[in-house]
Amino acid sequence: MQWYAAYLSAYVWCGLFLGRKIWRVIKARRENRYAHNDRLTQLVRQYKPVGWKDWLALFVIPAAVLLGLVVSGKVWMPTFTYFVALGFGITSMLPMSLIYATSGFPMQIGTFNELVYGCKRAPSYPLTVLIARYA
Questions:
Q1: 65 within domain boundaries
Q2: Of 13, 33, 75, 131, which sits most exposed with the smallest number of CB within 10 A?
Q3: pLDDT 10s per residue in the chain (135 long)?
Q4: pLDDT at 135
Q5: What gap in Å lies between CA 121 and CA 55, rounded to an integer?
Q6: How many folded domains does the chain comprise?
Q7: What domain range is 90 assigned to?
Q8: Is residue 66 in a domain?
């Protein structure tokens, strides 16, 4: 049950300790001004920013490839599990990465992967049964 506490603590930690900073960055972006003015940020501003099309391509291409692998049966897990894992990954990426970036502490959440794979315990999914058996 430690994985549940890890996710919950990440959201609470971001809300309590980084809430004001995140809100300042959001306000600065809405007003088209810079939120940070330190030396590293000034050096980075010299380069051309990455556009939204590039960020979208970096998300869509791997997601489509993984979806193709899941639908074709190359990965032994149900299709709905892919969407659950994708949604959960999207919502948990920001708090986990902020904690790691500010404190250097990696969150131990490896158990959740076994729970996602073990959603459908069927004989046609040998990897799922193997993972569920040893989890």
A1: no
A2: 33
A3: 566 777 788 888 888 888 888 888 889 989 888 888 889 888 988 999 889 999 999 999 999 999 999 899 887 778 888 888 888 888 888 888 888 777 777 777 665 655 555 555 554 555 555 555 544
A4: 45
A5: 36
A6: 1
A7: 2-47+77-134
A8: no
Q: What is the 8-class DSSP label of residue 118?
A: T
Residue 53 lies inside a defined structural domain of this protein? no
CB distance 98 to 107 below 8 Å: no
Whole-angstrom distance, CA of residue 70 vs CA of residue 30: 38
Give me Rg for the CA atoms of the chain. 19
* Residue environment code for 40-58, b if the CB has 16+ CB neighbours within 10 A, otherwise e: eeeeeeeeeeeeeeeeeee
Phi, psi of 10 (to 5 degrees): -65, -45
